[in-house]
Design goal:
By secondary structure, the protein is mostly beta strands. It contains no helices and 11 strands. Strands 2, 4, 5, 6, 9, 10 and 11 form a 7-stranded mixed sheet that branches. Strands 1-3-8-7 form a 4-stranded antiparallel sheet, with no helix packed on it.
Length: 119
């Protein structure tokens, strides 16, 4: 049973920073990629940042330059450093892990952590 446990969310003022952490129950190397998604009320879940097992990253323009994803393989942990936070960053942030087996990709999700940015 794969478990992803997030931590680090909270309330912060605009312009502030937070660091989210996601610990996997097994070896992080068992996943082809790890990422962070977010979902605001009434909106679809969207990609925030993704990092492959090889270390390549994918960060959308909406957060590029402000958010950084990284991983500590020894700790089976992926991080999301969020700087210069804006009220529109307010959402539930979810950790995601991808496991590819042949033509199939299976996604695993954490329980989510709330990030609230006040203006």
């Amino acid at each position: 049973q794969v478990q992803l446990v997030e931590s680090g969310g909270g309330l912060v003022q605009a312009g502030g920073s937070l660091r989210l952490s996601c610990v996997t129950s097994g070896s992080i190397f068992s996943f082809n990629a790890m990422g962070w998604y977010r979902q605001a009320p009434g909106k679809q879940r969207e990609l925030v940042a993704r990092i492959t097992s090889g270390g390549s990253t994918d960060v959308p323009d909406s957060v590029k330059g402000r958010f950084t994803i990284s991983r500590d393989n020894a700790k089976n942990t992926v991080y999301l450093q969020m700087n210069s936070l804006k009220p529109e960053d307010t959402a539930v942030y979810y950790c995601n892990a991808e496991r590819v087996a042949g033509p199939f990709t299976r996604d695993y999700w954490g329980q989510g952590t709330q990030v609230t940015v006040s203006s």
